[in-house]
Amino acid sequence: MPVIPVLSAVSLALVSLCPTALCARRDVLELGDADFDYLATEHETMLVKFYAPWCGHCKKLAPEFEKAAGRLKGIVQLAKVDCTANSETCGRFGVTGYPTLKIFRSGKDSAPYDGPRSASGIYNYMTKQTGPDSLHLKSKEDLQNFVNNYDASIVGMIPPVLLGWVRLVALLLSQTVVCFCSPGTDAPRLDEFLKAAGLLREQFRFAHITDLQVAEEQTQTESVLLFRPPRLANAFEDSVVVFTDYLTISSLRRFIRDNIYGLCPHMTMENRDRLRVRDLLTAYYDLDYHHNIRGSNYWRNRVMKVASKYSGRGLIFSVANKRDFQAELEDDYGLGTADGGELPFVTIRTKLGHKYTMREEFTCAGVEPNVSGLLLVTQRDGVRFRRDGQSLERFLEDYFAGRLKRYIRSEPVPEKNAAPVKVVVAESFDDIVNDPNKDVLIQFYSPSCPHCKKLEPVYWELAETLYSDPNVVVAKMNAVDNDVPLGYDVQGFPTIYFAPVGKKDDPVRYQGARELKDFLKFLKQEASHNLVLPGFKEEL
Which of 18, 23, 58, 90 is the catalytic position? Predict the structure, then answer.
């Protein structure tokens, strides 16, 4: 019976010819209205992408999602739902935009996915969603191993009678919060802790202990402890912080928020948005906590020594890997890899988006004088600086005194700007757009945008029509090569705003049609004065 071997050989040949992209697509389960419910319940943890085939962001995500599905095969199932063909399912789960990613557990909508959208980011994020909600630690060795982690952990001392609640506790990512609750713990109070843990499971890792002796070296009484990662241990702050407030979901959340990062956290691509809700100083250097903890902490300890002197003044401090943020440093601060050598770049970014860079080299304290008895000096951009180890302190003193000049990414201010459409750059934005006596229509564009090029003749005609009106300005700014000011949300091109007199802090986004009569109708409604339209025949 030679048929069987031949078929096997054919099958193997077909498998070997399977393109990588095609095999990856097969790793993504396709779900729809007819089969979503019963197929979703077969998977303990599943990440579902709700998308539309025409969506540009969906197309960009697709290859990353497929790569992640291949890496997560056998660990977490990835699935997708085409909302243009399965509107009932998408409507049931509240999908209003694309792509929308949600985490499902045994078929139930568990949480929105708010992690990275690269293949490696999806893989790292979703692997942390697997396994039990809370790991049961049965020995001191278990506790030590759990806390001694790159990230951190929440550990609850939970009496056996309440173990049914453990399913509410979740694996977290960045720091360690530990709850030790004796067998006499009041059930409602423990319930509050576990509910809070369930809400925060995307950020922290949790475990529980039922034997008080396991944690006798850490506590003898009921408490909540926050353990910072061992790799970030230092002499300037405690590695363990004790929660002493009355336990509620709000109070525990506040405790974690206020203590989770400590004096100088390690900023990553994953946590940067959470850190940047406050004014933030960051030192960027060759940081690597996976392979060189001691070397990574060399500069961090020096930042922390200075940070300890300025705590409580509204500025938080952080360190970051220079390579991870290289594109951002170049685009947002104009700092290239050759600018700082091996020394850290130091920047400040405020919650309002204002940016500052430290021009001096970040040198260490205790620099010895040279043979002539004078401190060494260094020069940058034609300015001489002392290398006395006090550069960071001087930078901070100038910042708090308001003496620093903001860094603004800007094209040169045009020498001549008499055309009907005024050219605005970041350096001239305040002078032109925020002129308190002018109504300004400002278009943010990209030089390569085809929609912007299509709009150009209409926009130019609008500017010519209004050229004789002394109270209105029609302007445009290249948003690729200039910083867009706070208050202007530019996600695509062209984006058009109107900044009228008396409302410069609250510009109005133009969302109408892009014909001359439509622009004029809008301006007649929004302008602070009657438009001057000499010789223009209205067709409104």
Answer: 58
Per-residue model confidence (pLDDT) at position 339: 60
What is the C-alpha to C-alpha distance for residues 408 and 333, in angstroms, rounded to an integer?
A: 8
Hey, what are 365's tokens?
A: 């304290």
Provide DSSP, 449-461.
-HHHHHHHHHHHH
CATH number of 135-175+186-260: 3.40.30.10
Write the pLDDT tens digit of every residue in 173-227: 445 555 665 544 445 566 777 777 777 776 787 777 778 788 788 776 667 788 8
> Count of CB atoms within 10 A of residue 284's CB?
25
What span, in angstroms and rounded, lies between the C-alpha atoms of 473 and 425? 15
Token pair of 193 as six digits: 């802790």
Domain range 28-130, CATH class: alpha beta
Has this prediction a pTM greater than 0.90?
no
Q: Determine whether domain 422-526 maps to CATH 3.40.630.30.
A: no
Determine the Cα angle at 247 with ends 243 and 267, to 5°.
50
- Tell me which of 83, 90, 181, 452 is the catalytic residue: 452
Exposure letters 428-443 (e unless 16+ CB within 10 A, then b): bbeebbeeeebbbbbb
Is residue 264 flagged as an active site residue? no
Domain ranges of the chain: 28-130, 135-175+186-260, 266-363+387-401, 422-526
Three-state DSSP state, 317: strand
Q: From the candidates 23, 55, 83, 364, give the one annotated as an active-site residue.
A: 55
Q: How far is CA 27 from CA 56, 66, 76, 331, 457, in A?
A: 22, 7, 10, 37, 48
CATH superfamily for 266-363+387-401 is Glutaredoxin (3.40.30.10)
Burial of residue 463 (number of CB atoms within 10 Å: 0-12, 13-18, 19+): buried
**Residue 173 pLDDT:** 40
Can 135-175+186-260 and 422-526 be said to share one CATH topology?
yes
449 catalytically annotated: yes
Average the pLDDT over 119-135 and give the result: 81
Q: Choose among 81, 69, 214: nearest CA to 142.
A: 214
CA 195, chain centre distance (Å): 25
Question: Quick check: bond before 414 cis, omega within 30?
Answer: no
Distance CA 77, CA 117 (A): 16
